[in-house]
Amino acid sequence: MASKMGRPLQIGAKKKIFSVSANLDGFPYPENTALASRLESLVRTNGGIPATIGVLHGIARIGLDPEELIELTASAGKPETKKLSRRDLGYILGLGMAGRSLNGGTTIAGTMALAHLAGIKVFATGGLGGVHRDGENSMDISADLTELGRTPVAVISSGCKSFLDISRTLEYLETQGVGVGTFADGRVGKADFPAFWTRDSDIPSPLMIQDENEAAAIIYAQHSLGLSTGMLFANPIPQKYSIAKSRMDTVMAQAIQDARASGFVGSDNTPFVLKRIRDLTGGQTVTANRALVEANVVRGAKVARELTKLQAARGGSIDR
Fold first, then answer.
1. Among 17, 28, 7, 88, which residue's Cα sits nearest to residue 54?
2. For the segment 119-142, what is each residue's pLDDT rounded down to a tens digit?
């Protein structure tokens, strides 16, 4: 589907098997451009075909060429560049069709919805959204969770962001029928569900996955059953970049308190908290963020590669 046909969705000419989002929270221009290019390179190096997803000039792009990638990432933070979840896609694409062209980076929910339209089954990102602390009262729950409950795309992330209520997030995903597993990453037996900047959360992962081959087999089985739910594969941050849980607990408590005092709620809450945490750690979380998203993309590319091999060995596509 191409824009010249009057459609608001454009899919690159090559078949895409793996997606990443152009929404790189915490990385201003030009850092976000360099990182986005590096992530695409890592996908290719590890046997995948990258499809960075975003909205450019009012058109949803499934796969950006280098010039488009630069243009979109350079527009980050500008008023005409929006943060797009599922609910926002019709709005921004409709405005594009009406002649008002805006740009946008997609959240996990927005990326999953677009990836599914393109037939992409594996998506890597940084950290999942979730149930915010005090979410039982505020009802501040990320649309990422409901998207996982209705869109059959496998998401690879470093768990959910540490300042969220991880226990309630996992409970919500269970209610949505979403399978959640954590890569063992050399560990034996049970392990914690990762908490973004730290490998430790004191919350056991529901399931453990040994390697990319197992993850690909799980995705294959899920699609073969015709189930419409997504899957979450948690990939812990590399050990050398993991920040001590005790330190992150202190920093996050301060950042959350500051957000409440400043009145940041809803979709504005996460960007404020991320920036505050970056400031309180002297930029250490930025280094950790870069390391974890690169590790997730490498892991995801390998999973997509193994899934492609499995499909070929089992007789082709598992699209239903």
1. 88
2. 999 999 999 999 998 899 989 999
Chain centroid, CA 236 distance in Å? 14
**Predicted confidence band of residue 268 (pLDDT cuts 50, 70, 90):** confident
CB count in 10 Å sphere of residue 176? 15
Which parts of 4-102 are beta strand (E)?
Answer: 9-11, 18-21, 50-56, 59-62, 81-84
Grouping H, G, I as helix, E, B as strand and the rest as coil, residue 37 is helix
Pull the structure tokens for residue 252: 């996050």
**Is a pLDDT exceeding 50 seen at residue 14?**
no
DSSP 12: -
188 phi and psi angles, rounded to 5 deg: -110, 135
Dist CA 42 CA 67 (whole Å): 18
d(Cα 181, Cα 174) in Å, to the nearest integer? 12
Q: At 202, is the secondary structure helix, strand, or coil? A: coil
H or E stretch at 280: helix 269-280
